[in-house]
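Researcher: Go.
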Amino acid sequence: MAIVGGDKTRISTLGTFFNFGSSSTERNRTAGTKIQLYFFIQRATAKRDATQNPTIAKPCSLAAITNKIIIKVIPSHERYTQVHQQVPFYFSLCSKFIEDDIFFIETNKIENICLSQYEPYHIESIKALFRIKTKIKALKIYIKNADLSRLKEISTIEILSIGEKSFNVDITGLANLKELYISNPSKLFGLDSLVNLQDLTLVKPSLEIFDSQYRHIYRRLISLTILGGKVPEKLEIFENENNLESLELFGIRNEMDFDLIAKKVRKLTCLKIEKCKCLKNLDKLLETAQNLKYLSFIDSVTLPNTKIISKLPNLKTLVVLGSSYFEDENLDELRKINWVSIDDKRHYNLKNCDLKKII
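Model: Structure:
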């Protein structure tokens, strides 16, 4: 507002000039140029009648406009968005505006890119990525049966999400990759080369992805999430000491035995298990995971009592819901935990509302 003398009308006009949300080719570029923006403000300011407001400020210099407006206005785009405030902005390319999109990305040095085959984007391959001359740090791909054999060429990627089943997924040599989300990989090349990978999410993985040749990768992981599919029964991939702090298991169909890894995940602070019915020696895991702060069982195992929970000195959050519950009625030990969420079972001596909800 200071740029145009506090005139709200001029701010509105400025927004109209860039036309955020417009689908026309000219305005889809959004970035425009500094000269266009400068002359627009000069022109808008010149139209004001000084007799009506003799104290109005004169137009700013081009440098001032660059510092105060260009940086904030240019990145605005209808397809440069975030899902919620806790995640970064991503720019979604659209097949109708590829040239303009690349112009916008390069001009504003956009580093987070999303490719989707769905409405209204209709991107069918990853070819457009190789026309972008600026650095790409985060990439989301939602294209069914996409050929991802050239992913290895984008060496600057730090976060990669592949949300649909693809083929020839080659991530060989992506040494900067720290987070990987991958769904239904039919073939995955180069997992053993991800020496800096910290966060791995696997959706319906095959047993091959847990092969012993990848042990050095799993040992370095800080967070592992497995959604569906099958895992090795004894989880041999973690039989050595590791850095794992967060483990989330959802919908695992086969039996899992925690006996082998119980003493190898001492750094674990978060354990979430949902819709996993066949768990053996879970008590051994809980006995050694003394650093646990977050523990969740949903539609999974039943717990005989709260005794094992009371032996977790650092536990701050406990969730036991659905077909997971305590067989014993006495839940008094749960009063010591900052946040507890349970179903109101008839045999419990406490209700959910009786327990703490301290964030």
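Model: The chain is about 20% helix and 20% strand.
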